[in-house]
Write a structure and sequence with these properties.
This protein has 425 residues and is of the alpha/beta class. It is 27% helix and 27% strand. Helix 1 crosses helix 2, helix 1 packs parallel to helix 8 and helix 5 packs parallel to helix 6.
Length: 425
């Protein structure tokens, strides 16, 4: 069994999202070297749009540390990830050239992607049917150059949960937008909802503020929405409300290429297509099935912007808990393969949930006189630092070539292997 292994406090962050920026920011503050890799040909962002002041502050701090401990790699394609915790090597392609980056741990913070769900909403966008982002752009436009004045004092209908529950991220943005419409356009705002949950941090305070600002809440079951030259009409259980504008939140889905990235990293995605952080040995948000690989933010959770940044801070803290002392050591209980019993069926490699088993060449073993004790052989081998001691390989090995070192087997298993050592009653 391996002992303590020194590691360099170097981390790779994948993604161009605000969550990625938060992870990089926190790790730099803890003294880590950070490789920040972006898969998109877009500027790397470090905060959400509603936190411009925090964005500028964090960008300034990152800029101060960039020369020494932060390296940006934009517009890259991940070709392969080799190695295990403490010694990952990423092969990247950028502008036709290959790059190799080493890191002791890796954080995936690729976020999600937005789209307009026309089939779900059964409504086409038009001059009076707009998305939240379209309205935000109008609100952010320079006064006198945007569409603020023509829309003043209009009745605006904001619709949540149309055709299905709205994601937390876009629902929060929609509710905040309703307040802006009241304050900046002096609009008469109606917020239609079907199942408004307040389990998101700050949600209840936000809805209370909306009521104080004069936003009218309307709960519906099956609304009838009519769009014509007269405007928008929403018929629901309490009657019909007419307005000049209908505002709809965009939907979110896993970012394109998530499944392919998961295959390269040898981690899992769930049925919903997002990265899956359920582990058979632990259940901790952000912890992948592979030791040393973590998820942060919207690539694995349905969360609002502030929650995504908090989750990124948690990922940075988890990495510091793993690497902070400058060394790694195996778990108290890990699996070990008897190379001479192994029949190379690869069952353990296929069933290990942590990608901790590999096929390796074992060297020949000789005694003190140089006489061969064991010849060289190719067999399965457990990577000690990557093993979590779950026992899945042990349970599935057809020839019992694997044991858990550091844990005593139950009596029934000992009896099966060594019946003569078990005393009879």
């Amino acid at each position: 069994m391996s002992q303590r292994v020194p590691v360099e406090k170097k981390v790779m962050v994948l993604g161009d999202t605000p969550e990625a920026g938060r992870v990089a920011h926190d790790l730099l503050g803890l003294g880590y070297l950070v490789h920040w890799v972006s898969f998109e040909d877009t500027p790397i962002r470090t905060s959400f749009a509603n936190s411009a002041r925090d964005n500028q502050s964090r960008e300034a701090e990152l800029a101060k540390l960039a020369d020494a401990r932060l390296a940006f790699y934009g517009d890259c394609n991940l070709v392969a990830l080799e190695g295990d915790v403490g010694q990952f090597t990423a092969r990247l392609r950028r502008d036709g050239e290959m790059l190799s980056l080493d890191a002791a741990a890796l954080v995936v913070a690729t976020g999600n992607e937005r789209y307009y769900p026309a089939e779900r909403y059964k409504l086409s966008l038009s001059s009076n049917v707009l998305t939240v982002s379209q309205i935000q752009r109008q609100l952010d436009a320079v006064r006198g150059a945007g569409a603020a004045l023509p829309h003043r004092h209009e009745r605006i209908l904001v619709m949540l949960d149309l055709g299905g529950e709205t994601a937390r991220e876009t629902a929060t943005e929609t509710l905040r937008l309703a307040i802006r419409l009241r304050e900046e356009w002096r609009g008469e705002v109606y917020a239609f909802y079907q199942n408004l949950k307040v389990d998101t941090p700050g949600y209840e305070r936000l809805t209370r503020e909306m009521r104080e600002k004069g936003v009218v809440f309307c709960r519906y079951a099956e609304p009838q929405i009519t769009v014509d030259e007269k405007g928008i009409a929403v018929a629901y259980v309490e009657g019909t409300v007419r307005g000049e504008l209908l505002v709809l939140p965009e939907a979110v889905r896993p970012r394109e290429g998530t499944a392919e990235l998961a295959a390269l990293l040898r981690v899992r995605v769930g049925e919903d297509g997002y990265f899956q952080d359920i582990n058979i040995h632990h259940y901790r948000p952000g912890l992948s099935v592979r030791k040393g690989i973590y998820f942060a933010g919207r690539c694995h959770l349905d969360v609002a912007g502030d929650e995504a940044l908090s989750d990124a801070a948690l990922a940075a803290a988890n990495i510091d808990a793993l690497l902070g002392e400058g060394f790694l050591e195996p778990e108290a209980v890990i699996a070990h393969v008897d190379s001479y019993k192994c029949i190379r069926c690869l069952t353990c490699i296929r069933t290990c949930p942590h990608a901790a088993v590999e096929l390796a060449d074992y060297q020949a073993v000789t005694d003190g006189d140089g006489l061969p004790v064991r010849s060289a052989v190719t067999a399965a081998r457990v990577v000690d630092l990557a093993c979590r001691g779950c026992g899945a390989c042990l349970a599935n090995c057809p020839v019992r070539a694997i044991e858990l070192v550091g844990q005593q087997l139950p009596a029934w298993m000992l009896a099966k292997d060594n019946p003569q050592e078990i005393s009879q009653p």
